[in-house]
TrEMBL record, chain A:
It is found in: Golgi apparatus membrane. Keywords: Golgi apparatus, Lipoprotein, Membrane, Palmitate. The keyword Membrane applies. GO terms for cellular component: Golgi membrane; Golgi stack; palmitoyltransferase complex. The gene is LOC115426154. The lineage of its organism: Eukaryota, Metazoa, Chordata, Craniata, Vertebrata. Residues 11-123 form the Golgin subfamily A member 7/ERF4 domain. It comes from Sphaeramia orbicularis (orbiculate cardinalfish). May be involved in protein transport from Golgi to cell surface. The ZDHHC9-GOLGA7 complex is a palmitoyltransferase specific for HRAS and NRAS. It is a lipid-anchor. Pfam families: Erf4 (PF10256). This is Golgin subfamily A member 7. Belongs to the ERF4 family. One of its GO terms (biological process) is Golgi to plasma membrane protein transport.
C-alpha cells in the first residue's frame, strides 16, 4: 500500500464577489500557510488563477462570434468543438498541476482545482510536516 | 540541526503525494465492483435519463403537456392547412413553418434537458470550515443558529449573501435555492413547470429563444389558419370551410389562448434581458428605484445592447456537477444534510470495501477533462460539526 502523508489541515480560499458574479478568489493570505509558503508566491498563484477565470468569462468579440455560430448551428457545433470556457479550464488545470509539482508539493501543500469543488473554493491541503518532528 | 538530512527527508516524505489522477490499475486491491456514475448519487430531487446525459425536474407532467400541445397543433397545421396554403399561396409557408417548428422543439428540449447551473453541495470539510468561521463570527451558541448572511459590496450596491442550510454554502449573488428541485441554482430565474426544469444561468438563453420562437410560431400558425379559412370561405362558404377543415378550429382556439400568454412572457423576458435582471429579482423588486433613490442594478452593463449580448451570446459555462463522471471510491462522499451526522461509508451508491474505511466524496469536475486527484485520508473528527440541525432553506 502506498505511504500516504497525513493531512494536518485544510484551508479554503473563498470566492470574492466584489466584482459581481464572475469567478474570482480572495487573494488574502490565510494565516495557516504563513509557516509553509511565501505570501507573494501564494498571492501570485491566486492572482494568475483569477486572471485565467476572467479570460474564460470575458465578453468580447470572440465569445460573441462563438455564441452566434453556436446559435446558428443549433448548438451542434459543440459536438466537435470545445467552448472557449472549457479550453480555459483545461489551461487552468494544467497551471494548477504545474504549480503543485514545482512549488506546493515540495512544501507539503496541495492545491485542488476549484472546478472539483464547483468553483466555490480553492482547497489547500496542508500535509503534516514530519521533518519538523523532534 | 541537520538541515541536509531533514531536507532530503522532507523531499522523501512529500514526493509521495501524488498530484496526478489515478487509474484503476494503481489500486490493485480494490474489488471489481461496477463503477457508478455521479448522477446516481446526486443529492437533489432531479431525474436523470440516458445515463446522466439528460437532467430534468421531478415533476415532468406539464412538460409532456407542452410537448403534446406543440406537436399536435403543428401536426394538424402541416397535415390539414399546409397543402391548401402551399397550393393556393406559396410553398414557402410550410417551409418557414417547418423551420420555426424545428427551432421551437430544439430550444425546448435543450432548455428542459440541460443543467440550469446547479451548484454542487459543499464537501464535509468545506461545510465544517464555514461553520467554524460562522461560530467565531457569531460568538453565541444558542439552540437555534441565527440566520447566516454575509454582506458584500458589488459595484457600489450592498448585496446580502445568504447561507443555504441544505447545500451548506453561502449562495453566490443571484443564486437561489429551488425548493422543487432541492438545488441551489446560479443566476436563478424561476422554476418553469412547462419545460420541466429550472431556468438558470446555463439554460436561460435557450428558454428565451424557446418562448420567442414559440411566439412567432403561434402567431404564424394563427395567421395562416385564419387565412386558410378565409380563402376556403371565398370558394365554398364559411360553414363549409369549417366542415372541410375541422382541425383548423382546434388550432385557432389553441393559438388564440397561447398567443396572449406566450407573447406576453416573451415581452417580459425581453425587458428582463435588456435590464439584466432575473424574474426572481424583478418580482422581489430588488433593484427597483422604489426601494431607494440610490438603488440600482449592479449587474447591468449600462446599455441594452451589451446586456442582451451578454445574456444571449456570452460564454456558456460548463456544468459544475459532473453527472457522467465515475464516483472515485477512495475520495470522500457528500454527507446527506438531513442526517446531521457524518456517515462513514453509509452511502447507498458505494459498494467498494474502501468505503468502510473512509468517507467518500463526489469530486466535481467537467467531463471535458480530468483534473488531478488528491490521495488522502480525511481526518476522522468531522462529525462534531455536522451535528447542527439543518432546517430547510
Amino acid at each position: 500500500m502506498r505511504q500516504q502523508a497525513a493531512i494536518a489541515a485544510k484551508v479554503f480560499i473563498q470566492r470574492d464577489y466584489t466584482n459581481g458574479t464572475i469567478c474570482q478568489f480572495q487573494t488574502k493570505f490565510p494565516s495557516e500557510l504563513e509557516t509553509r509558503i511565501d505570501k507573494q508566491q501564494f498571492e501570485e498563484t491566486v492572482r494568475t488563477l483569477n486572471n485565467l477565470y476572467a479570460e474564460a468569462e470575458k465578453l468580447g468579440s470572440q465569445s460573441y462570434i462563438e455564441g452566434c455560430l453556436a446559435c446558428l448551428t443549433a448548438y451542434t457545433v459543440f459536438l466537435c468543438m470545445e467552448t472557449h470556457y472549457e479550453k480555459v479550464l483545461k489551461k487552468i488545470a494544467k497551471y494548477i498541476q504545474e504549480q503543485n509539482d514545482k512549488i506546493y508539493a515540495p512544501r507539503g501543500l496541495l492545491l485542488t482545482d476549484p472546478i472539483e469543488r464547483g468553483l466555490r473554493v480553492i482547497e489547500v491541503t496542508i500535509f503534516e510536516d514530519r521533518s519538523l518532528t523532534r | 540541526m541537520h538541515l541536509g538530512v531533514s531536507e532530503s527527508m522532507r523531499e522523501c516524505e512529500y514526493s509521495q503525494i501524488s498530484t496526478r489522477s489515478s487509474t484503476p490499475m494503481e489500486t490493485p486491491y480494490k474489488k471489481r465492483t461496477p463503477k457508478k456514475r455521479k448522477w446516481e448519487s446526486f443529492p437533489g430531487r432531479n431525474k436523470f435519463y440516458c445515463d446522466g446525459r439528460i437532467m430534468m425536474a421531478k415533476q415532468t407532467g406539464v412538460f409532456y403537456l407542452t410537448l403534446v400541445l406543440i406537436l399536435v397543433t403543428c401536426g394538424l397545421f402541416f397535415t390539414f392547412d399546409c397543402p391548401f396554403l402551399a397550393q393556393t399561396l406559396t410553398p414557402v409557408i410550410p417551409v418557414i413553418g417547418g423551420v420555426l417548428f424545428m427551432f421551437v422543439l430544439g430550444t425546448l428540449l435543450r432548455t428542459s434537458f440541460s443543467d440550469p447551473g446547479v451548484l454542487p453541495r459543499a464537501t464535509p470539510d468545506e461545510a465544517a470550515d464555514l461553520e467554524r468561521q460562522i461560530d467565531v463570527a457569531n460568538g453565541s451558541t444558542g439552540y437555534r443558529p441565527p440566520p447566516r448572511t454575509k454582506e458584500v459590496v458589488i459595484n457600489g450596491q450592498t448585496v446580502k449573501l445568504k447561507y443555504c442550510f441544505t447545500c451548506k454554502i453561502f449562495r453566490p449573488p443571484r443564486a437561489s435555492h429551488c425548493s422543487l428541485c432541492d438545488n441551489c441554482v446560479e443566476r436563478f430565474d424561476h422554476h418553469c413547470p412547462w419545460v420541466g426544469n429550472c431556468v438558470g444561468r446555463r439554460n436561460y438563453r435557450f428558454f428565451y429563444m424557446f418562448i420567442l420562437s414559440l411566439s412567432f410560431l403561434t402567431i404564424f400558425i394563427f395567421a395562416f389558419v385564419i387565412t386558410h379559412i378565409i380563402l376556403r370561405s371565398h370558394q365554398t362558404g364559411f360553414l363549409n370551410a369549417l366542415k372541410d377543415s375541422p382541425a383548423s378550429v382546434l388550432e385557432v382556439v389553441v393559438c388564440f389562448f397561447s398567443v396572449w400568454s406566450i407573447v406576453g412572457l416573451s415581452g417580459f423576458h425581453t425587458y428582463l434581458i435588456s435590464s439584466n435582471q432575473t424574474t426572481n429579482e424583478d418580482i422581489k423588486g430588488s433593484w427597483s428605484s422604489k426601494r431607494g433613490k440610490d438603488n440600482y442594478n449592479p449587474y447591468s452593463y449600462g446599455n441594452i445592447f451589451t446586456n442582451c449580448c451578454a445574456a444571449l451570446c456570452g460564454p456558456l459555462p460548463p456544468s459544475l456537477i459532473d453527472r457522467r463522471g465515475f464516483i472515485q471510491s477512495d475520495t470522500p462522499q457528500l454527507a446527506p444534510p438531513t442526517n446531521g451526522i457524518t456517515m462513514y461509508g453509509a452511502t447507498q451508491s458505494q459498494q467498494s470495501h474502501m468505503v468502510s474505511e473512509s468517507e467518500t466524496e463526489s469530486v466535481t469536475k467537467t467531463s471535458a477533462f480530468r483534473a488531478p486527484n488528491s490521495f488522502y485520508r480525511p481526518p476522522p473528527l468531522l462529525s462534531s460539526s455536522s451535528k447542527a440541525p439543518s432546517p430547510s432553506s
